[in-house]
Amino acid sequence: MYTRKNQRNLTRTEKQRLVAAFLELKRSGRYDEFVSVHVQYYTADGETGPRAAHSTPSFFPWHRQFLLEFEQALRTVDPSVSLPYWDWTTDNTPAASLWADDFLGGNGRKRDQQVMTGPFAHANGHWQIAASVTEDRFLTRNFGGPKGRVTLPTKEDVAWATRDAVYDSAPWDSTATGGFRNKLEGWATGNADKGNNHNRVHRWVGGVMLGGASPNDPVFWLHHAFVDLLWLRWQKAHPRSGYQPAGPLDANDPQKGRIYSLNETMPPWNMRPAQLLDHSGLYRYA
Prior knowledge:
The protein has 286 residues and is mainly α. The chain has a single domain (2-149, 203-285), classed as Di-copper center containing domain from catechol oxidase (di-copper center containing domain from catechol oxidase). Helix content is 31%, strand content 2%. It contains 7 helices and 2 strands. It is globular. The chain starts with a strand and ends with a strand. The relative contact order is 0.17.
């Protein structure tokens, strides 16, 4: 059992050890393997084939296992390390501690969005983007989006999603108007915005965080650790509400074979959502 802490409560030594573990995974090539997995399973509604990671009921359990796999890789480098979480409802400005030079570095420069500060700046020689959908080899960020109008989600945005006692609902994709999963993932906004909650955080950070190769930015892991914590809080708020769909879809359902019900195995680990509903035997949140 280990603890995932709020990033703002990390000591200087804890930050240094976490950064060192990130850099070692990068040096060994293992980091880029995780990026490639996320790119592979970044499947949108309109694409063919199964959807395990996004716009799907298994959004939460898939990413829980993804983070666990990455966290275990970090801990093979340094057993003292665990993934912290970024509460973007509170630490919601470029001045927040996670963007400091001794941790994740700051925003990208205006000319090309290249991050020039911190240990993951390309200029420091340790962080070259390899698994990507662009030709750029440097980490990019563009806080607030192209026009600076994107804001980070608020506590009320999260509360709006958490109040929904239903986990997910048909048609089990980004168009579902109800259900905690789609509201927290960020598609069911109820307005013309392009996304809320989880999605809006990706948009606010910008740069490589905008696409399937978003794990190229180390903040991805802190963001999704908080998303994982929000799923836990929803479970505690609605103890009688379970994962949906609980059983296999009907043969004539258009999502049959595309999404994963409670006991269907998700690639690439052959893990069932049912196996990932409870993390209490592995880690806790502080």
